[in-house]
């Protein structure tokens, strides 16, 4: 049997337990309509509780079930005493200790026994440093602030906003690795360049390549994979209608690479599909822009 004392507190577990307690079957004397003061009615909402986050509200409550929710759950919006007892005596795996609850004008408020919660957390911090579960998969983190434009960025050209992006990318990578993911960060930067030395001073271990390294072979492999991909949508555009670097390329045919991301996720049954994803388009002479993209990794990773 799982030892509750060794399970870390989780907000999600607490909210789920509060929801179950609030949905508990009340015992009341029916009224003329067959519903007592705690009579249940249909169409109860899925989200019954809200976790407070503002400093003002946290002074007097940690969770709130709004009046609109209570009116939907109970005919007169009054929580039966039996349900209040269940809410106030909440227990369970990963559930925060409840100090009390009270009906107010805004709804049913609940506050956590913060002293007991802090004592429990500080008594064994190690359980909170472990990831909730070990996952498998590959993730590519793209950091736009470090891409050459056209030169490799340096500490002198890096703005505070760009530095923030780099720090967030590094932090996100560390969190994903702790959860078991294989993380690749891009773009790679030249070894011993000024920006790499600067990032190391900040404790950031960014991937590097030799100064003489070129991306030509990688681009050729990616181009071949995209051209032969079953998810590629055949499409060509008349390059003569465009101008490149001020020169008219009239008469040339410029091949477009268009990949249907929706099909990739659906047919490969990949998790995390975003319905807003459609197709990704790139030009064969600009394949380097897709080198570090997620699309390429989805198509070529096995």
- Main sheet strand line-up: 1-2-4-3
Shape: elongated
> What is the overall number of helices?
11
The CATH class assignment of the largest domain is Alpha Beta
Percent strand equals 15-25%
Could you tell me how far the N terminus lies from the C terminus, measured between alpha carbons in angstroms? 39 Å
Q: What share of residues is helical?
A: 25-40%
- The CATH topology assignment of the largest domain is Gyrase A, domain 2
Per CATH, the architecture of the largest domain is 2-Layer Sandwich
Beta strand count: 14
Low-confidence stretches: 1-5, 25-45, 240-251, 291-302
Biased composition (Basic and acidic residues): 231-253
Protein name: DALR anticodon binding domain-containing protein
GO molecular function: tRNA binding
Organism: Oncorhynchus mykiss (Rainbow trout)
Overview of the structural elements:
- The protein has 302 residues and is an alpha+beta fold.
- It has three domains: 4-128, Gyrase A, domain 2; 131-212, no CATH class; 214-302, no CATH class.
- The protein has eleven helices and 14 strands.
- It has helices at 11-22, 55-58, 67-73, 81-88, 114-123, 126-129, 160-178, 194-201, 216-227, 261-267, 294-300, and strands at 50-51, 63-66, 98-104, 107-112, 138-142, 182-186, 189-190, 208-209, 232-233, 236-238, 243-244, 247-248, 253-260, 279-283.
- The strands form five sheets. The protein has a four-stranded antiparallel β-sheet with strand order 1-2-4-3. Strands 9, 10, 13 and 14 form a four-stranded antiparallel β-sheet that branches.
- The longest helix is centred in the middle third of the chain and has 19 residues, at 160-178.
- The protein is elongated, with a radius of gyration of 28 Å.
């Amino acid at each position: 049997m799982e030892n509750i004392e060794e399970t870390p507190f989780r907000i999600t577990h607490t909210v789920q337990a509060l929801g179950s307690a609030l949905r508990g079957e009340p015992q009341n004397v029916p009224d003329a309509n067959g519903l007592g003061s705690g009579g249940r009615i249909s169409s109860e909402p899925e989200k019954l509780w809200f976790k407070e986050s503002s400093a003002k509200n946290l002074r007097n409550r940690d969770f709130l079930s709004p009046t609109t929710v209570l009116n939907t759950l109970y005919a007169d919006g009054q929580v039966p005493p039996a349900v209040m007892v269940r809410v106030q005596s909440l227990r369970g795996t990963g559930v925060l200790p409840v100090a009390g609850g009270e009906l107010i004008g805004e709804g049913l408020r609940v506050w956590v026994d913060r002293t007991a919660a802090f004592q429990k957390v500080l008594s064994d911090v190690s359980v909170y440093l472990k990831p909730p579960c070990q996952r498998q998969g590959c993730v590519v983190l793209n950091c736009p602030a470090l891409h050459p434009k056209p030169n490799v960025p340096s500490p002198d050209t890096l703005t505070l906003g760009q530095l923030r992006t780099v720090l967030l990318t590094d932090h996100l990578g560390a969190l994903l690795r702790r959860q078991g993911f294989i993380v690749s960060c891009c773009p790679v930067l030249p070894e011993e360049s000024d920006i790499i030395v600067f990032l190391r001073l900040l404790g950031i271990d960014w991937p590097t390549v030799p100064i003489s390294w070129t991306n030509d072979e990688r681009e050729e492999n990616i181009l071949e994979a995209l051209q032969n991909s079953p998810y590629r949508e055949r499409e060509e555009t008349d390059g003569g209608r465009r101008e490149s670097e001020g020169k008219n390329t009239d008469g040339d045919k410029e091949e477009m690479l268009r990949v249907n991301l929706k099909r990739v996720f659906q047919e490969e049954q990949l998790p995390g599909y975003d319905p807003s994803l459609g197709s990704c388009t790139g030009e064969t002479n600009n394949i380097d822009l897709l080198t570090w993209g997620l699309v390429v990794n989805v198509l070529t990773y096995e």
